[in-house]
Amino acid sequence: MTDRSARRVLVTGASRGIGRAIVKRLAMRHHRVVANARDAAALKDVARLAPDRITVMVGDLTDVEQRDALVPRAAEELGGLDVLVNCAGVLRYGEVGAIVEQDLIATLKVNLLAPLLLAQAAAPYLAKRGGCVVNVASTLGIRPAPGLAGYAASKAALLSVTRTLAAELAPAVRVNAVAPGVVDTDMPRQLRGADPAQDPREAVDRQLKELTALHPLGRLGCPEEVADAVLFCMEAEWMTGSVLTLDGGLLAV
Ligand SMILES: NC(=O)c1ccc[n+]([C@@H]2O[C@H](COP(=O)([O-])OP(=O)(O)OC[C@H]3O[C@@H](n4cnc5c(N)ncnc54)[C@H](OP(=O)(O)O)[C@@H]3O)[C@@H](O)[C@H]2O)c1
Prior knowledge:
It contains seven helices and seven strands; from the N terminus they run E-H-E-H-E-H-E-H-E-H-E-H-H-E. By secondary structure, it is α/β, with parallel strands linked by helices. It has one domain: 3-Layer(aba) Sandwich (Rossmann fold). The site of NADP nicotinamide-adenine-dinucleotide phosphate has 29 residues, from helix 1.
């Protein structure tokens, strides 16, 4: 790849899981990346994958000042911005009767407000060289599940935002989303309503087995597979307003 085709990319949620895999794939393809999350030590470790191509930018997306500073800082660091990957996400489990307002607010701030407001801030930069936004949504935004009302609503709204921005920013900027099924990261290891008397390790194993069983292909997704889908969205020049699901068949059954 020549320097001309190297893209300047801001990735949120880059400290672990899917975001880390996206940063790694981008750097392998010689793109230049600003990697954002809160965990400075984990981000430093990500930057070691390709120190000449990855710059760390620590920041909390629930903090208005830090969020609003992120796009201008990233554009300054990279000399412009071609791609925004909104990957940061939080999942707070709560069945009806145990839903907590603060959890809903935190979920909406990270999963919905940040992607929309970062895209708004990024749009003028992205428009200069035919750039794009890729939002990491979820199959739960298409088919919700019990105990995840706030998370599923945030991802459904993110899919709506994807389509609205695609229409509004065309033809200068493309906006797409990927919607993974359950992916093997820390997120599906957070316990969702397990019996408090159960051994936590056994409860996690059991939860992972139950989640795996939702997928006809018989396994969870890998972060690298989602990263490949994100790169596909970046490169598919006639694609905008689309949702690319990769879910081991979860939505087919
Ligand atoms: N794993 C799955 O099964 C699955 C399925 C479908 C969709 N997704 C979506 O894929 C994305 C990545 O998920 P994952 O599985 O990789 O989750 P993860 O391992 O829990 O990582 C979440 C990432 O979001 C960042 N983040 C969380 N709160 C933040 C905040 N306030 N400010 C800045 N960064 C914040 C975290 O970084 P810090 O903690 O360092 O801030 C971390 O890098 C999320 O949007 C998730 O909803 C996941």
